[in-house]
Design a protein that fits this description.
mainly alpha
Length: 112
Amino acid sequence: MQLTTASGDMGLDASEQIRRIKNMPQSEQIAKVAGQFESIFLRQFLKDSLKPMIKGCMGENSPGSDIYQSMIVDTIADGIQSGGGMGLSNVIQLQLQQSGAKGKASNAHGDA
């Protein structure tokens, strides 16, 4: 079973996701992993920051409030991701690409 969101596949089968990522070029691997990290970070941030508002509107112990909270967080997070995200993914990609380039350069000097 696969879940698809605005940020892409959020597969439940982790081993399948790893196989897919391994077959991608390194630049695509970095972009995919950075996007996934941003998506997880965004959902956690929204979950924590929206909790008081959602609990206040729905009541502390109302039936299904956790489910509704999850749905609201997912909807808002998907909207942010489809609108270009928060920019965190771009920063992570740049950092990973720079550290990869530095690693290749140091290996080249060590091989010489």
